Amino acid sequence: MQSLQDRVVVLTGAAGGIGRGVALGLAAAGAKVVLNDIGVSLAGEGGDASAVEALAADIRASGGQAVANRDSVAGAASAARIVQNALDQFGRIDAVINNAGNLRDRFFFNMSEAEWREVIDVHLHGSFFVSRAAAPHFREQRSGAYVHMTSTSGLIGNFGQANYSAAKLGVVALSKSIALDMARYGVRSNCIAPFAWSRMTDSIPANTPEELARVEKLKRMGAEKIAPMAVFLASDAAREVNAQIFGVRANEIFLFSQPRPVRSVHRSEGWTPESIAEVAMPAMQHEFYALERSPDVVNWDPI
């Protein structure tokens, strides 16, 4: 089904893993795709354009329309060039899928300023800059779709990823703000938390039997499984879907909750530190969330 026939989609982080699967899914759905990837490693090393160029060539050879782009998402000017590339090549833009990512895993107490900033720049700033560049065009045509990749590292938590977790939870808040600000123009914004084996998950440490078992499970979750949800959210079939957070894990689709009050306590005379300790906390503690990581919460076998 050509659900994106003649629609123009910008996809960042397109060259490998989840990005490649989404790119092929978009092309199969009839989209004209700007494939953005700077061609560096997760650590920011290298600069090889061959993978994204080859992907664009493969799509064109199969009868699709695609162009490769190597501008960085991490700067406003370069992100604007990505969107302009879509306009120059295809005359319009209909959807943005923010998938570009990197990792600088380190325990919080050892994390450097550079490791913090480099991850925030790509995931959070990059999602903002590319989305912001597309916004005037979406407003003018009174249509458009944003799809942002978040992570359960931000939604739930994980070891050694303060930078990545903060960025990915920030992406959720960014998506909600975009949805609120752009709904009047017929523009929607949603998030996907993908579970898939890719370059990002390939860096997960596997030093214990439990970690090895987790990695083996992840290896069975193909990156191509994320594509159908991304294609759906970019298409008109999702016109009534806005400001949501979905998870995709092999053949499972999740809808994630969003923060809402779960319990309140009231004291007519107000609170003191002592009464908070004696009354408020005991009343609320049964609703406290445990100190859990993503694999502690999503702990069942999807296969």
The largest sheet is: 8 strands, mixed
- Tally of separate helices: 11
Which H/E pattern describes the elements? EHEHEHEHEHHEHHHEEHH
Instruction: Compute the average pLDDT.
Output: 93
Low-confidence stretches: none
Organism: Xylophilus rhododendri
Pfam family, one: adh_short_C2
Protein name: SDR family oxidoreductase
Domain Ketoreductase: 7-203
In words, what does this structure look like?
This protein has about 300 residues and is an alpha/beta fold. The chain has a single domain, classed as NAD(P)-binding Rossmann-like Domain (Rossmann fold), CATH 3.40.50.720. It is about 45% helix and about 15% strand. The chain contains eleven helices and eight strands. Strands 3-2-1-4-5-6-7-8 form an eight-stranded mixed sheet, with helices on both faces. A hairpin with a 2-residue loop joins β7 (about 245-250) and β8 (about 250-255). α1 (about 15-30) packs across α9 (about 225-235), α3 (about 75-90) packs parallel to α4 (about 115-140) and α4 packs parallel to α6 (about 160-180). It starts with 7 loop residues before the first strand and ends in a 6-residue tail after the last helix. InterPro entries: KR_dom, NAD(P)-bd_dom_sf, Peroxisomal_Beta-Oxidation, Sc_DH/Rdtase_CS, SDR_fam. It comes from Xylophilus rhododendri. This is SDR family oxidoreductase.
Outline of the structure:
With 303 residues, this protein is α/β, with parallel strands linked by helices.
Provide key terms for this protein:
303 residues, alpha/beta, Rossmann fold, 8-stranded mixed β-sheet, 11 helices, Sc_DH/Rdtase_CS, NAD(P)-bd_dom_sf
